[in-house]
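Checklist before submission:
- one chain only
- standard amino acids only
- sequence pasted in full

Submission:
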Amino acid sequence: MAHFDLPPEQLQSYRAAAPAPADFDAFWAQTLAEARRFDLNATFTPVRTPFVTVDVFDVTFAGWAGQPVKGWLTLPRARTGRLPCVTEFVGYGGGRGLAGDHLGYASMGYAHLLMDTRGQGSGWRQGDTPDDAPGAGPQVPGVMTRGIQSRDTYYYRRVFTDAVRAVEAARAHPEVDGARVAVAGVSQGGGMALAAAGLCDVQLCLPDVPFLCHFDRAARLVDSFPYAEITAYLKTHRGRSADVFGVLAYFDGVHFAARAQAAALFSVGLMDEVCPPSTVYAAFNAYAGPREMRVYEFNRHEGGENVQALERAAFLARHWQP
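Returned file contents:
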């Protein structure tokens, strides 16, 4: 696909016009307060793997409504003192996978907590966390419209709450330096990183080609999935667009970005037909903290891939010395 979105010079200053709902902050404060009524109960069980340079732990912690959420914690075996930690979130349809699937950050000398995504983990990598979703109404296959009838029942209310609790679980481990915690992810994981950075205190944020940003533009600009789940729902539920986008406004990465203070490294593919460049720039230009962007002019949703991995490594090294 050739460039289809705004010209680069317009992208650099593009902003979403719609403000956050007036009670956005109150809604999230109440949501997180309800989650914190449950003990975090973070557990880290050692797992035997064939890898000799890292130690892996099977993680369980209490997420939304106290429901158990799984993850992996990976630590460099040769470690002294408390380590900075990257809390990472997974792309759409994927799960936490297997112990030892995620060695990069620990190999750099950091602690790494990878959160499983509730109700996903069968599209391209295994998951182990169910989504207990009371009150969910009709939906298009996938999770983009699960519980879309209300902000209280919408799927990403539970997921973003889990993400904040994952940061808290990382900080609960005695070998993690709670003053040096980053959030990171690609696509859906990038959108979740923005949500976590906007909802809790972290030091660094690394959202690559982030999904879940500027829903109203994305759903009208591209017909690719997962955003096409929203358009398919509205094609059937005619006349509900104002209600649907009203709910989605509480989960828009643009509004979380406007509340985030952590230093951030974004990336974007200018031919990305899954997460259109203007939606990424809408979050980037709203971002309240120090921010940098890496641009991949001829890439689609794969973005910078291994090149961006090295950019992330350099960014972390500039801020942390493990």
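Reviewer check: The first strand starts at residue 43 and ends at 47.
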